[in-house]
Amino acid sequence: MSTGNYPPAGQPEQGPGNHAGGPSAPSSTPFPADYAADYAADSTTDSTADTSAGLAQSRPDASQPAGTGTPAPQPSSAADQPGVTRAGVVWAAVVAALVLLILLIIFILQNQDQVAVRYFGLEGLVPLGMALFIASVTGGVLVAVAGGARILQLRRNAHRARLRQRK
């Protein structure tokens, strides 16, 4: 399927400064391999004028051929599409956190068997799901502390490097 970025063979390229019927500079971009097959399939219609008008309308930078009277519909560009926003990222993070929380609650509820836990001389009975949850949160806190220390170390080194550059 053609992307509609190239004019039909023998037709002038439409663009800034190139109008239908006027001289046009030769295109420096070669035709893609699938364009010839698409053009051949499109040229089986009753009129090649209909085909070239259809291809011109599918191009975002194409001007309307003279004499048709109706402007070509412009496809929406990437600038018209909404981008990624902080609110969207926060919303996605909240939804992901809620899904994980629901899965965690299900895990804890399914693992209610009492287990004996010993830690530095302390001993007690705790539900298995809660013991595993506490262990995983403790591991996460240790990783976060180590990562935070490394981030602070890198920031301090970068700050020192900037101070050396200014001297």
TrEMBL record:
Biased composition (Low complexity): 33-53
The entry's keywords: Cell membrane, Membrane, Transmembrane, Transmembrane helix
Membrane spanning residue stretches: 89-109, 129-152
Residue ranges annotated for the Lipopolysaccharide assembly protein A domain, each copy included: 110-162
Organism: Pseudarthrobacter quantipunctorum
The protein's name in its UniProt record: Lipopolysaccharide assembly protein LapA domain-containing protein
Pfam families recorded: LapA_dom
Chain spans, region Disordered: 1-82
InterPro entries: LapA_dom
Coiled coil regions in record: none
